[in-house]
Design a protein that fits this description.
It is a single chain. This protein is of the alpha+beta class and about 290 residues long. The protein has two domains: about 5-130, no CATH class; about 140-285, Trna Endonuclease, Chain: A, domain 1, CATH 3.40.1350. Helix content is about 45%, strand content about 25%. The protein contains ten helices and ten strands. The strands form two sheets. Strands 1, 2, 3, 4 and 5 form a five-stranded antiparallel beta sheet that branches. Strands 6-7-8-9-10 form a five-stranded mixed beta sheet. A hairpin with a 7-residue loop joins strand 1 (about 5-15) and strand 2. The radius of gyration is 24 Å and the shape is elongated. The N and C termini lie far apart (about 80 Å).
C-alpha cells in the first residue's frame, strides 16, 4: 500500500464577491510521488443554473474544460512544471489554472490527504464522490415546477375564469430602481400596482434553496424605495421542493422572504387558484 501524501483543492463558483456565496464546481488533485495532476468536475451544472438566474453555464464549462486540459498538460510535462508547482502550490494553481476572465472561479485552500491505494484514479474518484456524489442527482426537468410552470399555472387559472381579464394583465414588466433592474412576469392594478414574480424553490439541495431565497430577499429589499415611491406591491408565486426531505429548508426560505422589508405577498402554489380569483375580482372592480 502506498502511503504517500497528496494535496487537493476545491474549485468554487462565487456568484457575488460581496455576499461570499459559493458552490463547488470541481476538485483538483496533485500527486507528487506519481507526478500527476488530476481534475474532476460535474458534467452538468444544474445546481448553479437553478441557484442563479443569470448564470453563464457555457462560460463556466469552457473554463472547466480548460482546467482539465491544463492538468493533463502538467502531468504530461511534469519535469517542466514540478519545481514551481511544488514550491508554492497555491500560487501555481492560481497562475496556471485560472484565466484572467474567470473572476467567478476560485480555488480553496490546499488540503492534504494520504494515498491509501496505488490506484490514484480510484482515490481521486472517491474524493470526488464525497464532495459531488449527489451533484447530478437533480430533479428531472419535465417534472420540475420551475418559474415557467408557475407562471403558466396562474395564467391558465385566470383565463379559465375570465378571458376578458387578459387585456388588463401587463406581461414582462421591467422595473428600474437606483440599484438594479428587475423583470416581473405580470403586473395588474387595483389600488396598487401588483408586480407578479414566479419563484421556484423546487430545487435539489438545501443549499440551493437557501441561496435562492437569500438572493431574492436582496433583490426585493433593494426595490423597496422604488415600491414606496410608485405604490408597488410584490406578489411572489412560490413552488415547494418535490423532495419532502427539503420541506424544512423550504419553510425557512418562506420565513426569509416573508421578512423582506417591503410591500409584498407570498403566494404558495396551492394558493394560486385563490390568488387568480382575487385578480379577476379586483380587475373587474377597477375596470
Amino acid at each position: 500500500m502506498n502511503n504517500n501524501i497528496f494535496t487537493y483543492s476545491l474549485l468554487r463558483y462565487v456568484h457575488s464577491a460581496s455576499s461570499g456565496e459559493a458552490l463547488n464546481v470541481g476538485i483538483l488533485f496533485i500527486f507528487p510521488e506519481q507526478k500527476k495532476v488530476v481534475f474532476h468536475a460535474p458534467t452538468k451544472l444544474s445546481r448553479l443554473s437553478h441557484a442563479y438566474q443569470n448564470f453563464s453555464e457555457w462560460l463556466v464549462k469552457a473554463h472547466l474544460k480548460g482546467i482539465k486540459q491544463k492538468a493533463q498538460e502538467v502531468s504530461k510535462d511534469w519535469v517542466l512544471f514540478a519545481d514551481d508547482l511544488l514550491s508554492d502550490q497555491r500560487a501555481f494553481i492560481a497562475r496556471e489554472f485560472l484565466l484572467e476572465d474567470a473572476t467567478a472561479l476560485q480555488f480553496s485552500e490546499i488540503r492534504v490527504g494520504v494515498c491509501y491505494t496505488e490506484n490514484i484514479g480510484e482515490l481521486a474518484q472517491s474524493y470526488y464522490d464525497l464532495y459531488f456524489g449527489d451533484y447530478e442527482e437533480m430533479i428531472p426537468k419535465e417534472n420540475q415546477r420551475n418559474e415557467k410552470y408557475i407562471s403558466q399555472k396562474l395564467y391558465k387559472s385566470i383565463i379559465a375564469k375570465s378571458k376578458d381579464v387578459e387585456q388588463y394583465l401587463k406581461k414582462d414588466v421591467v422595473i428600474e430602481s437606483p440599484d438594479l433592474t428587475l423583470k416581473f412576469e405580470y403586473a395588474w392594478q387595483n389600488h396598487q400596482q401588483h408586480l407578479v414574480k414566479p419563484l421556484s424553490l423546487d430545487l435539489a439541495t438545501e443549499e440551493g434553496i437557501q441561496e435562492k431565497a437569500a438572493r431574492n430577499y436582496g433583490y426585493l429589499a433593494l426595490m423597496n424605495q422604488t415600491a414606496q415611491e410608485h405604490n408597488y406591491t410584490f406578489d411572489i408565486l412560490i413552488s415547494r421542493p418535490s423532495a419532502k426531505s427539503l420541506y424544512p429548508s423550504y419553510e425557512k426560505a418562506l420565513r426569509v422572504l416573508e421578512s423582506v422589508p417591503t410591500s409584498k405577498k407570498i403566494i404558495e402554489e396551492t394558493q394560486i387558484e385563490q390568488y387568480s380569483d382575487e385578480i379577476v375580482q379586483q380587475i373587474v372592480l377597477v375596470k
